[in-house]
Amino acid sequence: MLKQSWKYALALVCAATLACNSGKAPAEAAMKLAEEAVSGAQAEAGSLVPDDMKSLSDDLAAAKDLMAKGDYKAALASAQSIQQKANDVLAKAKAKKDELTATWNQMSDSLPKMLDAIKSRVDILSQSKKLPAGLDAAKLASAKDGLAAATTAWAEAQDAFKGGKWTDAIAKATTVKDKATEVMGMLGMQAGGMAAASPAK
Prior knowledge:
The chain has 201 residues and is mostly helical. The protein has helices at 2-45, 50-68, 72-127, 137-162, 166-186.
């Protein structure tokens, strides 16, 4: 009887072990897909929705911890949830990219016009024998420096956009807009319809 009880207990242990192991394979497969989903999302969403991307990465770390502890059922559920969340993060990143691109398109249309108008005005004033009231040589020199700074910043903004750094590009373009508006004020010019769009939040 004792021998049979021992065999029965051993059978239960083996069955339990088999059940655990049987849950390990699907959990590992799901974890691999989750890792690939997070890695794929990072490339597109990392710079656009960094907070969402961090949350996704934290979820993956927690799922791996469950896996390491042998809680395959929970790890499987978490990994599957991460795959869906990665899709949601990518969708949010795409919406953000579209928003930033629309803002950039407006800025790339208006800012060059502002800079060209300022340059034209500066060239005329530089050749003038007498400056208009309210404008002296020092203010004109300051306007020239401001134009140079805005032109440089605009080139940097364009490079950032071409490099896929959309948020950085918008920030630099906003600096260009502010500087150009300031210089136009120095020269007694009105920005009017040339004012660039406000940046997307």
